Amino acid sequence: MVREATDKVDVNPFVPFPATLSRVVDLTPDVKLFTLELDNPEDEFDYKPGQFGFVSAYGSGEAPFGLTSVAYRKEGLHFAIRRVGTVTNSLHQLEPGAKVGVRGPFGNFFPMDDYKGKRIMIIGGGIGFAPLRPVITTVLDNRKDYAEVVIINGARTPQDLCFAAEFDDWAKAPNTKIELTVDAADENWKGRVALIPDVVADLKPSPENTIAVICGPPIMIRFTLQGLKKLGFGDDQIVTTLEGKMKCGLGKCFRCNVGEKYVCRDGPVFTFEQISGFIEQF
Amino acid sequence: MTKTLSKNELESWLANILKERTLVAPRRVDDLTLFLPVHSTDEIAFDCSNTDLSPKDWFFPRTEALFTAEHKDDDIEITPAVIEQETVIFGIRPCDAKGIAILDGPYLGDPADSLWAQHRAKTTMIGLSCSTPAPQCFCTSMGGAPYDSSSVDILLTEVDDGYAVETVTEKGETLIQGVELKESDVSGSVPSCDAQVPAEGIAEAVKKAFDDPYWGRLADRCLHCNMCAYVCPTCYCFDIRDRTEGGKIERLRTWESCQSKGFTKIAGGHDPRADKGSRLRQRFCHKLLYFPEQFGPLGCVGCGRCVVSCPVNIDIREIISDIQELGAKVGEGSN
User: Fold this and answer.
1) Which of A74, B197, B220, B283 has CA atoms 20 to 30 A from the CA of B298?
2) Given an 8 Å threshold on Cβ–Cβ distance, is A99 in contact with B102?
3) Mutate which of B68, B115, B210, B290 to disrupt the A interface (most A C-beta within 10 Å)?
4) Average pLDDT score, chain B
């Protein structure tokens, strides 16, 4: 059990890569899209859809966020961050040019190659839609590799829908549908007023050759999962990205475990077949 | 023949160590015995049983800066923490040393925790066998022994007129260099720890009893005071937060406990372990199921500190027995 400690002292895995905020865009009243550029070109940060990183607002702390960009576009690291706590409040006060830190990438990823040739349902609620954006980008950038794409994006109100600026482009992409829904409409809203599970029930997607990727609040995931299973989806056809309170991302702080699995290292991407096999059920 | 050292020789050896390194040893402070730096060997509590707090502080301090950050012009300058101080811990018990050694599993696993690795590299442990294990001790049930030398650098065992010396590692060899040891024919009883806690096969039993209402009932009386995690040599969960003082930012790692309310609460407000039952279960599942699955040994060394410290008598020895019974019942039921 005793390992040699002396040769493992060089790199401190808690020290973030230095980075600069290059762009900050309002996505909703409480969500901003941050673009980070690494300051040192030699720092390696190659990532895949579904992976996440910790962003540091020095003095306030750091927190984990899903990457919403794709590495191959080389547009910097994008994080869609909702203002909810100490770190996110500090990040929201920063302007382009501010120095921040980033650690990662961490976790596993959506196996995009396995989805090739399949129809993909991309179902996201609120800020939970953010980690699904790189899935959409990857599919639309490689459109012929995948079958039909159905995007369902829901939020509390029309103003809370993330990535609204991109909806038109997604809708215009070949063989791509987008369904938007809100819990509560305003006077300008002409779309659906329904909960996401109800939209799924209404669309009645066939499970044939289909993968459903879901992310959102726990209650939305639970009922969407039930709805998909009623339509005949198998647990191995439904994929989610789990959220867990975490501090290190390295499998050390033992805060994000669900039973014997770490969200940070074994996840965050799991099929419901995997999740239903966990000893602990959240 | 055994290598031995008299009590006087031991004291002068420790006095020499003191001149060059930090010497940490059990010291009495008010009504507590704690591992603290000593300035003279007179301060060492040679005759103490298990200390009130474990020595994990010296490898995993309750608060430690991972790095510091400072605004310099338009940039941020980061200085990673470096452990320079060479430390010798005297009087560490075999169970506590094993507690440190098994944490190499999570901490030195890829990527290695550089601070843990530095503390390990800079610290030499002089262990002391337990000649009279305390009533709450159950190390032998957890795969240890009162004279287990496997996790220390040097092990001393009390004999008739001094200590038998077993040098275990190269680090120990270096530390004891120049100390003249006698070759003696020692007598004295081999210490024993007679507690019988049925830990054999406990991981399987925990799995079977996972969904039992037992955990909720047990947790009814838990005050989530976190004392168990505080005194435990193998509890290693942590929190990370920033502290700013005079323009200098420290990113601090601090002890945290899975018994704390909100330990798993996520940003949206959802807490998957909001009830005390699932939090208490987490503590025991981590030690008895998840830790051995991931790293091999059980995540408990049988030091008995949580047994004496818990204000509501939640007793891991009883829990292990109860879970074995429950597991056996569930096993019968499924046949």
Assistant:
1) B220
2) no
3) B290
4) 94
